[in-house]
């Protein structure tokens, strides 16, 4: 493919969608082209940053070299974040800029699509209408700090006792632990967001179509019509749905009055107290109302908000060890696909879908309850489906983070 | 077994859903019983009045049970007012959607049959009193105006019986749609179990009402009771098959079976098996022996005894049906997210 044809789609899309924005559209187009060059290993990150750092600061007031706000403060026991995957960070930053530029002129849904393309890899992959947002989650690098749990809680302002992202800490019966169960060495983790399944059982059972799949593969709930019948809670193999009995806890609304609670996000919570509606007017994100059944949205509100970066999720942003990779699983250039290539290996068939990893690398990757659904969370690590486990505190508990511990049943 | 499983199914669906499933099964079963009695009233004129009484009770109990169960279901919802947007209920992959429309159809058919069998020219209900006469007079007029030919009415009644069966089975399929998450709600055995239990409860309710109001002589009570006994035996076989399936299933299924037979033994062994299955069979056996030995027409005291005996049997059957559904809800365990 010629160099020109590689970038024609960016030119066409940018002309169409950046025509009304107040920002420098030429800068946006040039950055998008160069971002793809970085993605294709035709340009180094350093060269990219050098080329655009001044323009970006001047145009958008953003430091291209800085990390996200969520990483601003170090947490005791948590490694610093400078070691994050370089190429991906750059692409994230570019996606954030593109969000603002595109959304300002073309509407939030277009922004989301564009941003997904910029982060997830090629824009062409998005235009194919075959996008499936998902995650690759590395259980081997997770340090059980629960920042993802807290970051999700803060950003989504979730109800009392709800944890859309959770981290289970446990000991496997088939493994010997030399350390205490309240240490990282003495426990294993499993991060559990919604799996946004291809054949989501919650969608299948939802009587009035309140649960639905978006064009980019998110499974969302329309709170305007949700009955609160709890059928989704019953049917979900991953137990990710929660009935909303009451609003967000006080420590989210008034963190300054709760000495035990130390926020990790600066000013995001306030942004997401409102209802977030999609282009069809459906209330799909923001704090869910009492009486509904809510769950992880892959931070869909970010896609719907002109000021937000829809190419990432809160849990991904705050993870200090990059154990969570979010993007279009169908796009070979997306962050999760790149992560799989770099940490697990190449697929025999480069065109094969991401779930082929489970077939080709069964000792390094796994999915959960694939007998009951078709999840879009691919785990890196030892499969734990068929081993006995015992829940343990791990090095960090929710209490340590000032979060209420949810009553969890062991049987 | 140790595994991580955040919540139990009964923490989502508990008493109200169990009672609703019970009332749904009872409604469908009562209607089916009434429809059968309606046809028998033609084939056996000597018991016509008794059968027609059962037919009327079937329709009335069908309406009443759902009239109670519907609001229970509604108030279980977190957002009951959203039901107003009924046009959104179009996801026919969901048994809840199918069930909602089955209920609507069932209610229409039940009310129509109750209207035609109980009001107007037939005046089956024979509601007395001058105070109500303006109202009943109006209903009588509506009944006579809308009443189709007997052939069409019975055809509709047969169709209603099919809808009644679907109503009973749907209450099981609603659960068994999640059998991969909750092994107790086995997709193979829960539908026949609920069908058998629903029909048994329906007979108990509709024929039990006839028993209480008209006694056991020439009302077909004994025949229906024997049919009920056969269904109870079939239900016992299905319960055994369900337990056998669980004990041969995965770890959660095995744990469910163990829980059922140990911690859940009072409600299962006591409520379902003893009170709901064995005791009715025992009472029925005793009553059949009584009827075989004595002519109840000749002995009013024994007839009263038989009436009380059948009413008691039917009462235990209905109680057992409720216990069965509560057991199915409360003894259910989730397949854990991970671990075994």
TrEMBL record, chain B:
Membrane topology, as annotated: Multi-pass membrane protein
Location of the protein in the cell: Cell membrane
Gene Ontology CC terms: plasma membrane
Transmembrane segments: 12-36, 57-78, 98-119, 156-177, 189-212, 224-247, 267-290, 310-333
InterPro entries per the UniProt record, alphabetical: Electron_transfer_protein, NrfD-like
UniProt key word Signal: no
UniProt keywords, alphabetically: Cell membrane, Membrane, Transmembrane, Transmembrane helix
Family label: Belongs to the NrfD family.
Name the UniProt record assigns to this protein: Formate-dependent nitrite reductase, membrane component
Biological source species: Halapricum desulfuricans
Name of the gene this protein is made from: nrfD
């Amino acid at each position: 493919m010629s160099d020109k044809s590689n970038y024609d789609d960016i030119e066409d899309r940018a002309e169409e969608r950046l025509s009304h924005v107040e920002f420098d559209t030429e800068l946006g187009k040039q950055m998008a082209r160069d971002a793809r060059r970085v993605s294709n290993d035709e340009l180094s990150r350093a060269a990219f940053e050098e080329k655009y750092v001044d323009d970006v600061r001047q145009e958008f007031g953003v430091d291209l070299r800085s990390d996200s706000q969520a990483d601003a403060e170090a947490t005791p026991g948590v490694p610093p974040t400078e070691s994050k995957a370089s190429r991906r960070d750059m692409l994230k930053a570019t996606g954030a800029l593109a969000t603002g530029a595109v959304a300002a002129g073309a509407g939030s849904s277009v922004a989301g699509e564009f941003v997904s393309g910029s982060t997830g890899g090629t824009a062409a992959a998005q235009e194919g209408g075959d996008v499936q947002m998902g995650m690759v989650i590395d259980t081997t690098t997770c340090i059980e700090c629960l920042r993802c749990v807290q970051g999700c809680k803060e950003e989504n302002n979730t109800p009392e006792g709800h944890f859309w992202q959770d981290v289970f800490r446990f000991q496997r019966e088939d493994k010997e632990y030399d350390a205490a169960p309240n240490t990282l060495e003495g426990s294993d983790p499993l991060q559990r967001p919604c799996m946004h399944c291809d054949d989501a059982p919650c969608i299948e059972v939802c009587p009035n179509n309140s649960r639905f799949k978006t064009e980019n593969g998110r499974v969302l709930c329309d709170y305007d019509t949700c009955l609160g019948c709890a059928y989704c809670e019953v049917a979900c193999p991953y137990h990710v749905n929660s009935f909303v009995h009451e609003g967000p806890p006080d420590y989210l609304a008034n963190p300054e009055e709760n000495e035990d609670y130390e926020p990790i996000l600066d000013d995001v919570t306030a942004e997401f107290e409102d209802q977030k509606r999609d282009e069809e007017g459906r209330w799909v994100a923001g704090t869910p109302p009492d009486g509904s059944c809510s769950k992880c949205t892959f931070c869909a509100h970010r896609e719907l908000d002109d000021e937000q970066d829809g190419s990432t999720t809160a849990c991904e942003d705050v993870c200090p060890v990059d154990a969570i990779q979010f993007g279009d699983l169908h796009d070979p250039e997306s962050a999760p696909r790149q992560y799989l290539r770099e940490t697990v290996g190449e697929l025999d068939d480069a065109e094969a879908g991401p779930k082929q990893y489970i077939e080709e690398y069964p000792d390094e990757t796994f999915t959960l309850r694939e007998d009951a659904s078709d999840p879009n969370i691919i785990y890196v690590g030892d499969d734990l489906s068929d081993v006995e486990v015992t829940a343990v505190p791990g090095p960090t508990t929710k209490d340590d983070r000032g979060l209420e511990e949810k009553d969890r049943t062991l049987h | 077994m140790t595994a991580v499983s955040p919540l139990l199914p009964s923490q989502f669906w508990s008493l109200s859903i169990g009672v609703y499933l019970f009332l749904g099964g009872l409604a469908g079963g009562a209607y089916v019983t009434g429809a059968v009695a309606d046809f028998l009233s033609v084939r056996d004129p000597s018991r016509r009045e008794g059968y027609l009484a059962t037919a009327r009770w079937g329709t009335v109990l069908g309406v009443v049970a759902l009239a109670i169960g519907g609001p229970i279901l509604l108030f279980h919802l977190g957002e009951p007012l959203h039901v107003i947007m009924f046009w959104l209920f179009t996801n026919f992959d969901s048994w809840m959607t199918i069930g909602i429309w089955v209920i609507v159809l069932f209610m229409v058919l039940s009310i129509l049959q109750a209207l035609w069998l109980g009001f107007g020219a037939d005046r089956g209900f024979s509601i007395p009193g001058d105070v109500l006469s303006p109202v009943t007079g109006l209903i009588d007029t509506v009944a006579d105006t809308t009443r189709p030919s007997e052939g069409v009415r019975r055809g509709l009644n047969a169709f209603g019986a099919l809808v009644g069966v679907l109503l009973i089975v749907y209450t099981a399929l609603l659960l068994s749609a999640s059998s991969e998450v909750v092994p107790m709600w086995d997709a193979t055995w829960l539908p026949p179990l609920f069908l058998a239990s629903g029909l048994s409860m329906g007979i108990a309710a509709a024929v039990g009402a006839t028993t209480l109001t008209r006694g056991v002589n020439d009302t077909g009570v004994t025949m229906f009771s024997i049919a009920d006994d056969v269904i109870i035996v079939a239900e016992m076989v299905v319960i055994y098959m369900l337990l056998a399936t669980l004990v041969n299933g995965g770890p959660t299924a095995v744990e469910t079976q163990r829980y059922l037979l140990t911690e859940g033994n009072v409600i299962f062994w006591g409520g379902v098996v003893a009170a709901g299955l064995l005791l009715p069979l025992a009472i029925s056996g005793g009553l059949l022996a009584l009827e075989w030995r004595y002519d109840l027409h000749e002995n009013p005291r024994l007839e009263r005894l038989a009436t009380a005996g059948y009413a008691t049997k039917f009462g235990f059957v209905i109680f057992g049906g409720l216990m069965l559904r509560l057991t199915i809800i409360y003894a259910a365990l989730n397949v854990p997210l991970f671990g075994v």
